[in-house]
Amino acid sequence: MIQTIAFYLFATLVIASGALTVFARNPVHSVLWLILAFFNAAGLMILLGAEFIAMLLIIVYVGAVAVLFLFVVMMLDVDFAELRAGFVRYLPLGALLAIVLAVEIVFAIGAWSAGAINMGARIAPVASDVSNTQAIGQLLYTRYIFLFEAAGIILLVAMVGAIVLTHRKRGGVKPQDIGHQVRRRPEDATRLTRPESGQGVEL
Amino acid sequence: MTDLSQYLPILIFLGIAVGLSALFVFLPMGVSRLTGTHNPDAAKLSEYECGFPAFEDSRSQFDVRFYLVAILFIIFDLEAAFLFPWAVSLQDIGWAGWTTMMVFLAELALGLVYAWKKGALDWE
Amino acid sequence: MTAWFASWGLTYEAAWLVATIVGILAIALPLMLAVAMIIYADRKIWAAIALRRGPNVVGPFGLLQSFADGLKVFLQETIIPSGANRGLFLIAPIITFTVALMAWAVIPFQAGVVLANINVGLLYILAISSLGVYGVVISGWASNSKYPFFSALRAAAQMISYEVSIGFILISVVLYAGSFNLSVITLAQKGNILGIFSANGLNPLLFPISVMFLISSMAETARAPFDLTEAESELVAGYQTEYSSMSFALFWLGEYANVILMCALNAILFWGGWLPPVDWAPLYAVPGIIWLFAKILLFFFIFSWVKATVPRYRYDQLMRLGWKVFLPISLFWVCLVSGWLMLTRYS
């Protein structure tokens, strides 16, 4: 019973915050609604019994990706009202995508002979004594080894790409060189003299 | 099978925590109206600046470096995400699984070396 | 506890609910009290190191100082700047404080005494602590003021930088315990050093990362010497500049609750949690919660001590420490620890 209530609570909130993400006028608000949507999606994942995925959803999407989004919308001074002016122009394409998605959802529901919401029991083909984190591990690093390594390569490419795109050398800065500082001895920097009275020091 | 009953306390805790902190924020606002400490004026409500009106919009553009840090963070976070299931299933997957991960880590170590050499990790 | 409430004639569900709510309040309310006292302790330790007396007027030894401060801010006016984004401005402290409370749900205080004994406890803590960024970023942005905005950006970059190395450090611990459950991690440390001591931190392989974790946890909670987010010489009071009254106090409370949490994590992950430091039967007569609190207080003393003695880092130094020192070392340590375990335990 509580599962059902929780499911409808999370599902409603996901949809509502998803809608608000689209309709919010302020882009920062959009991102924050998106975060709420991620959060509730994580709740749905927990209801499915996929606790590892739920935590990853929060750690990776909420904790990392959304921070980047927030940085971007806070940094770029984009006039979003102007972007929204293109709404009518992109409407046909958007509508087409929406229809395709809706049809897919209908098919998915049709294929899944409907029943009471007992999702945890339905999608969890894992032995009861193994936590699903462990179950993922047992498959990912043995059977799906190539996909896993490919994921590593993709991450590498992403990292290189990000650096190439955003990194720029700035001139005129004086970065700290610790090795240089540590190597420097008192003899290099100071000079002891004993000048005669009235003579002064020649620099 | 995940024990969902262990998650319900967290949900209830979330509700109580949000309620408690909302109470802490909104109750003083009510109290200050009752006690008469609530009397805002234009100068009090202006944003903090060193004794003069702000020259420009405070939400200025900032260095792209923050953006780069966020991207690098995502990548290393994902890498850590791949390490989590590996860490708990190490005894089941044996040397093969261990070697797989070492190759994966080597790929990312390569990325780290690249970032290092390019100076993307420097903050001047 | 459920059974005890059920004996009052409640149904099982109702008894469970009452027991859970009592459990939650038994965590949240003492935590707030603990925060009040720990702020006092912080000021006293800091004063003692600087040869001052610290708070000593309100109540015996100044013990009631924090409560007096609390009452004062409670009665003050909440100022919302006219340029601020009202809703978000008020939500930010709520997020900060909620997040600081939520993480405690999975902390085991004693054998079997934990609110939510989930399999992925450590991941839950990581997830919750990654949310802490939002309270800061939102407050900085919503204030619509220059200094909070800069501070929020700095804080966000700092927190995410150190989260990376914290993630890798945690993996080394998880490798040893073979689980994300904090109770299992604690129990795995029982007598793990020569059958005498119960502490991961005494393991020569884990000691270096226990030190790294301690330092990273200072950076993650933006404590001195990493308190660049509120470097008063540059940023006024950081992201809290525009806040007043209880909303300001919530940031304060949340910050200290996070500090205590990090102390607790240090204690649980590396120094045996609720287990007595020496695996010797008579020591188990002392309740586990007292051992845990003693360890938390010890770590808090270290935090305070560092705050009083170490000068503040510069931002480039902070970033270098995170990305160029901690990240490679913790990455290397994952390989080292897992290789060692493969050779000794799993083959």
UniProtKB/TrEMBL annotation, chain A:
<keyword id="KW-0472">Membrane</keyword>
<comment type="function">
    <text>NDH-1 shuttles electrons from NADH, via FMN and iron-sulfur (Fe-S) centers, to quinones in the respiratory chain. Couples the redox reaction to proton translocation (for every two electrons transferred, four hydrogen ions are translocated across the cytoplasmic membrane), and thus conserves the redox energy in a proton gradient.</text>
</comment>
<keyword id="KW-1133">Transmembrane helix</keyword>
<keyword id="KW-0812">Transmembrane</keyword>
<feature type="transmembrane region" description="Helical">
    <location>
        <begin position="6"/>
        <end position="24"/>
    </location>
</feature>
<protein>
    <recommendedName>
        <fullName>NADH-quinone oxidoreductase subunit J</fullName>
        <ecNumber>7.1.1.-</ecNumber>
    </recommendedName>
</protein>
<dbReference type="InterPro" id="IPR001457">
    <property type="entry name" value="NADH_UbQ/plastoQ_OxRdtase_su6"/>
</dbReference>
<keyword id="KW-0560">Oxidoreductase</keyword>
<dbReference type="GO" id="GO:0008137">
    <property type="term" value="F:NADH dehydrogenase (ubiquinone) activity"/>
</dbReference>
<dbReference type="GO" id="GO:0016491">
    <property type="term" value="F:oxidoreductase activity"/>
</dbReference>
<feature type="transmembrane region" description="Helical">
    <location>
        <begin position="56"/>
        <end position="78"/>
    </location>
</feature>
<feature type="region of interest" description="Disordered">
    <location>
        <begin position="173"/>
        <end position="203"/>
    </location>
</feature>
<feature type="transmembrane region" description="Helical">
    <location>
        <begin position="144"/>
        <end position="165"/>
    </location>
</feature>
<feature type="transmembrane region" description="Helical">
    <location>
        <begin position="31"/>
        <end position="50"/>
    </location>
</feature>
<dbReference type="InterPro" id="IPR042106">
    <property type="entry name" value="Nuo/plastoQ_OxRdtase_6_NuoJ"/>
</dbReference>
UniProtKB/TrEMBL annotation, chain B:
<protein>
    <recommendedName>
        <fullName>NADH-quinone oxidoreductase subunit A</fullName>
        <ecNumber>7.1.1.-</ecNumber>
    </recommendedName>
</protein>
<keyword id="KW-1133">Transmembrane helix</keyword>
<keyword id="KW-0874">Quinone</keyword>
<keyword id="KW-1003">Cell membrane</keyword>
<dbReference type="GO" id="GO:0030964">
    <property type="term" value="C:NADH dehydrogenase complex"/>
</dbReference>
<keyword id="KW-0520">NAD</keyword>
<keyword id="KW-0813">Transport</keyword>
<comment type="similarity">
    <text>Belongs to the complex I subunit 3 family.</text>
</comment>
<keyword id="KW-0472">Membrane</keyword>
<dbReference type="Pfam" id="PF00507">
    <property type="entry name" value="Oxidored_q4"/>
</dbReference>
<dbReference type="GO" id="GO:0048038">
    <property type="term" value="F:quinone binding"/>
</dbReference>
<dbReference type="GO" id="GO:0005886">
    <property type="term" value="C:plasma membrane"/>
</dbReference>
<keyword id="KW-1278">Translocase</keyword>
<keyword id="KW-0812">Transmembrane</keyword>
<dbReference type="InterPro" id="IPR023043">
    <property type="entry name" value="NAD(P)H_OxRDtase_bac/plastid"/>
</dbReference>
UniProtKB/TrEMBL annotation, chain C:
<feature type="transmembrane region" description="Helical">
    <location>
        <begin position="325"/>
        <end position="343"/>
    </location>
</feature>
<dbReference type="InterPro" id="IPR001694">
    <property type="entry name" value="NADH_UbQ_OxRdtase_su1/FPO"/>
</dbReference>
<keyword id="KW-0812">Transmembrane</keyword>
<keyword id="KW-1133">Transmembrane helix</keyword>
<keyword id="KW-1278">Translocase</keyword>
<dbReference type="Pfam" id="PF00146">
    <property type="entry name" value="NADHdh"/>
</dbReference>
<feature type="transmembrane region" description="Helical">
    <location>
        <begin position="164"/>
        <end position="187"/>
    </location>
</feature>
<dbReference type="InterPro" id="IPR018086">
    <property type="entry name" value="NADH_UbQ_OxRdtase_su1_CS"/>
</dbReference>
<keyword id="KW-0472">Membrane</keyword>
<dbReference type="GO" id="GO:0016655">
    <property type="term" value="F:oxidoreductase activity, acting on NAD(P)H, quinone or similar compound as acceptor"/>
</dbReference>
<keyword id="KW-0874">Quinone</keyword>
<feature type="transmembrane region" description="Helical">
    <location>
        <begin position="88"/>
        <end position="109"/>
    </location>
</feature>
<dbReference type="GO" id="GO:0003954">
    <property type="term" value="F:NADH dehydrogenase activity"/>
</dbReference>
<feature type="transmembrane region" description="Helical">
    <location>
        <begin position="121"/>
        <end position="143"/>
    </location>
</feature>
<feature type="transmembrane region" description="Helical">
    <location>
        <begin position="14"/>
        <end position="41"/>
    </location>
</feature>
